[in-house]
Amino acid sequence: MRVLVVGGAGYIGSHACKALSKAGHEPIVVDNLIYGHREAVKWGPLEIGDMLDAPWLAEVFSRHKPDVVMHFAAFAYVGESVSDPAKYYHNNITGTQVLLEAMRQADVKNIIFSSTCATYGEVTHLPIEEETGQSPINPYGFTKLVVEHMLADYQRAYGLGWVALRYFNAAGADPDGEIGESHDPETHAIPLAIAAALRIGAEFKVFGADYETPDGSALRDYIHVTDLADAHVRAMDYLKRGGTPTAFNLGTGQPTSVFDLIAAVSRVTGSNLPHDILPRRPGDPPALYAAADKAKNLLGWEPRYSDIDTIVRTAVTWHRQSAY
Fold this sequence. Notes:
Layout: E1 2-6, H1 11-22, E2 26-31, E3 46-48, H2 54-64, E4 68-71, H3 78-83, H4 85-106, E5 110-116, H5 139-158, E6 161-167, E7 169-171, H6 189-197, E8 204-207, E9 219-220, E10 222-224, H7 225-240, E11 246-250, E12 256-257, H8 258-269, E13 275-278, H9 293-299, H10 308-321
Parallel strand pairs: 1-2, 1-4, 2-3, 4-5, 5-6, 6-11, 7-10, 8-13
Antiparallel strand pairs: 9-12
Helix pairs in contact: 1-7, 2-4, 4-5, 6-8, 6-10, 8-10
């Protein structure tokens, strides 16, 4: 199939493009390159532009005639969403509606949406299931939840087929070393820890060592980006088979503590990871991890690269070569 990958020059989108190509599909990347990287577009054409530009987007649909859309294009810095919510509402919500309208005009019926566990907010029960109540605590998470509701409304009104994939902590890099993670600014724990271990970044910060967890540090569910990409291809196939529109958690269900992460980075790099223990950050829950049985049962999806050492090893290889 011809797949329009909106945000396909970014971290997860570029890995999805590789997975699509490997499965015999043609990814067509739409990206404004604000956060994406031209060098990450390797498996199909690149259309440089913004999904908010409705006439341009309609022309792209007309020219490429995609069969399905994968939508990764969102601003995703939680702190920035709090300080500048207008930017997030405009891009993440208005931009998505422009995209959905372009799909309607082009009669493209199916979309795979990049959602997030941030739609759940602060939870009282673990692991987090798809039926867990969604009460996001920041504008970023709220914009993703609004889009999920938009998809359901478009389904009821216009027959849209959709899957929303709620990622937990995306991490790692392409095992072949072709693409990887490069954000500016970087806020993700694993690349920050690797940079500290390789002495190319600041000392790693542990926010809170007094949680009621086995080692006192926060627990998170890290999922390898290649496993995320595989889930997108499977979700597309699921819709093609007539699967009911729905949302899926993408996680391992096996939480990793911050100190476990530090130990893994030290093992893989062969370098002691300098770190500083600071007070807890407001709003950081002690533990977040997924129940991903639904994706296993309906998509046939199981993580293959998401043990913490494999995640860190692929990320270290990427950061050492610093391809872009």
